Amino acid sequence: MNNEVFILRPEDRSAKLSVIGVDITVLSANELENGQDITLQKGDVGMGPPPHSHDWDESFYVLKGSVEFICGNKTSICSEGTLVQIPAGTIHAFSFLSGGGEMLEITHKGRAIDAFRAIDRQIPKGPPDIEKVVRVFSENGVQIAQGSGV
């Protein structure tokens, strides 16, 4: 077991990733021996992923603003200080509400950051090529839900 302390200062962060209108800053990607990946996600009103699922658990902690989460058949408006835990395999989506927002995302032994990096590399800013987005996500373990309008 690695007993070293991990500290990441703002000046040491890597460049933000652009993932379909959401700015993602990787705070921890496999640096922690327990396999947790941690990102900071910021988005303007209306930004967020379409309904999707993957084989890793995911948690979000809302830091600023409000975010609408759809998890399975349940829709919740989550304000600052709300924690949302989504089990692996659950179809879910989120969208930043009025004024945009910011939240932490924590995954455990997943491939979320791989998917984010692939989208950032392969999908230019602006209106996305939906077919390509679906393909890149799929190649990285994220399945867009059927009937999601994508």
Q: Main attributes?
A:
150 residues; mainly beta; 7-stranded antiparallel sheet; two-stranded antiparallel ribbon; 2 helices; 14% helix
Explain how this protein is built:
With 150 residues, the protein is mainly β. 14% of the residues lie in helices and 44% in strands. The chain has helices spanning 112-122, 130-139, and strands at 17-19, 22-29, 36-43, 52-54, 58-71, 74-79, 83-86, 92-108, 142-144. The strands form two sheets. Strands 1, 2, 3, 5, 6, 7 and 8 form a seven-stranded antiparallel sheet that branches. The protein has a two-stranded antiparallel sheet with strand order 4-9. A hairpin with a 6-residue loop joins β2 and β3 (36-43). α1 (112-122) runs antiparallel to α2. 23% of the residues are buried. The model has no long low-confidence stretch (mean pLDDT 90).
